[in-house]
Amino acid sequence: MIDRYTRPEMGAIWTLHHQYQTWLMVEIAVDEGWAKLGKIPKSDVEKIKKNASFTDEEIAKIEAVTHHDMVAFTRDVSKSLGPERKWIHYGVTSTDIEDTAYGIRYKEANKILMKDLLTLKHTIAEKALKYKNTVMIGRTHGVHAEPITFGLKLARWYSMMKRNLKRFKFASKEVEAGEVSGAVGTFANVPPQVEAYVCHKFGLRAQEITSQILPRDLHADYISTLGLIATTLEDFATEIRSLQRTEIHEVEEHFAPGQKGSSAMPHKRNPVADENICGLARVVRGHIISAYEDVPLWHERDISHSSVERIIMPDTTILLDFMLHRFNHILSNLTVFSKRMKQNMNITHGLIYSQRFLLKLINTGMTREQAYDLVQPLTAKSWTKGISFKKLVENNPVIRKRLSQADIDDAFDYHYHLRYVNYIFHRVGLD
């Protein structure tokens, strides 16, 4: 991933040097497992732990000849050792080391992502409670519908984040797996006790059955989950983008001193951060297809998945970390124009209360069809001529025979629509 979208802590996990570090960690753990079984002298393991080392540059030189990165790695490590070098990579195959090392790095990445998710969930909760009673118009099909609050919109996001966390907890634990089962997964040359030791040491889950590799449906599920989280962020960002439009202008991304919105037009304040979230979500979703195509492999394994994962695993976790961090900053500093929200409620001349008024008429004994056919022409006249819907109602003789002025005033009171806000917040867990 390019530096622009890479936060240092997450980026460090996916460096080539850290890849080799985790490979060495697993190689040493395998030897420790063998030593516990009495196969390898403990003194040799101590020498390996003390002296085993590598250099990225030397591995690259060897790989240029061997065309095999694991062989290049083990040969470079062996150069740093004495006779105990014979125990490096003993009984195992490349993916025993690679997949288990991936599990270590997934665990490291997931710790960061979990922190990001919890931070954003907390920020959404704070903002939802702050704007719990900030009335605004709800829109369906992009058209004014009925009153809601900005807090309710955020409460929906909070509920979505709870689901994101639930999905992430499951998928992350599934992919934090290891396997040390040998060339075709039969444990023929390395017993299950070694795998158990290695996985326990690194806090990984030993997969119940493998071939030469961990089954890639685990990874597909993981990437799908990250893709869905990215998509929910796009959903949030799309809403902010829409509400920032000039003709709506109910919220706005924070515009810092010295910031420029356009190279040509000095007045511009564009929702560029949210647009960035939406664009990156497309990239993350694209990786889902690649992850799914990595599942069907030939027989006990082939290597077609490897090149894909070298790209999508770092890039997906790096991008999602960046997106979660950036959207948390967007929301933490979001400017909310509550007065504008109230003003916008009135631009449809009171038509947003048509259903409430319709129900009032039904309650007087009219059929739904009669009430609808009485109200709809008044709404059309109000909209096309820009006349107050309430005035048209008050001047209609049929309506005045059925409803008092108090009834009419009550029908045009937005507070009626908000009477269950506390209940919804309680149900969401935002008391």
Cα shape: elongated
Count every beta strand, where a strand is a DSSP E run of 2 or more residues.
6
Order of helices and strands: HHHHHHEEHEHEHEHHEHHHHHHH
CATH fold title of the largest domain:
Fumarase C, Chain A, domain 2
Enzyme class: lyase
Domain Adenylosuccinate lyase C-terminal: 349-429
Family: Belongs to the lyase 1 family. Adenylosuccinate lyase subfamily.
GO molecular function: (S)-2-(5-amino-1-(5-phospho-D-ribosyl)imidazole-4-carboxamido) succinate lyase (fumarate-forming) activity; N6-(1,2-dicarboxyethyl)AMP AMP-lyase (fumarate-forming) activity
Question: Would you mind describing this structure in some detail?
Answer:
The chain has 431 residues and is mainly alpha-helical. It has two domains: 94-343, Fumarase C, Chain A, domain 2; 348-428, Ribonucleotide Reductase Protein R1, domain 1 (Orthogonal Bundle), CATH 1.10.40. 64% of the residues lie in helices and 5% in strands. It is built from 18 helices and six strands. The protein has helices at residues 8-13, 16-36, 42-51, 56-66, 69-79, 94-130, 150-175, 192-202, 217-243, 272-293, 304-332, 338-345, 354-363, 368-385, 389-394, 397-402, 405-411, 421-428, and strands at 135-140, 143-149, 177-178, 205-206, 251-252, 335-336. It has a two-stranded antiparallel sheet with strand order 1-2. A two-stranded parallel ribbon has the order 3-4. Strands 5-6 form a two-stranded antiparallel ribbon. The radius of gyration is 31 Å and the shape is elongated. It starts with 7 loop residues before the first helix and ends with a helix. The mean pLDDT is 97. This is Adenylosuccinate lyase. Pfam families: ADSL_C, Lyase_1. Belongs to the lyase 1 family. Adenylosuccinate lyase subfamily. It catalyses: (2S)-2-[5-amino-1-(5-phospho-beta-D-ribosyl)imidazole-4-carboxamido]succinate = 5-amino-1-(5-phospho-beta-D-ribosyl)imidazole-4-carboxamide + fumarate; N(6)-(1,2-dicarboxyethyl)-AMP = fumarate + AMP. InterPro entries: AdenyloSucc_lyase_C (IPR019468), Fumarase/histidase_N (IPR024083), Fumarate_lyase_CS (IPR020557), Fumarate_lyase_fam (IPR000362), Fumarate_lyase_N (IPR022761), L-Aspartase-like (IPR008948), Pur_lyase (IPR004769).
